[in-house]
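Sample entry (121 residues):
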Amino acid sequence: MPYYEFLTSVIADGIAAAMADYKAQPDKLKGSVAGFEACKGKDPGTLLTVLHEARRRTHQAYADQAENYWEIRCFEAEVEWTCNCVSAMLSNEGLPTIVTPTARGVFKAAEILGVGTGVQA
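Predicted structure, serialized as tokens:
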């Protein structure tokens, strides 16, 4: 599966999950959707830049005790999740990763790629 097709699937699945998980928490929903949107069309190097900036903003919001902390934190979490899944795919291809992928990221990448399901991507 081409990189940008994979990335689009991670983002679409993530937005759907955020809408289900945070339907009663508008601040978390807003931040989560914005985090996924910020990843659209980004190559791995640019995703790393987005992740670093998101981490910086979360740290600052925490230090400032910002009223919109959870919006900012959820933005970061979804950028990190996207980088996690993309890194699992990159690792599978023998390419450098953005972050060290977690088991959950590997499972999500495998689900999107159809690995282990008998379906060829």
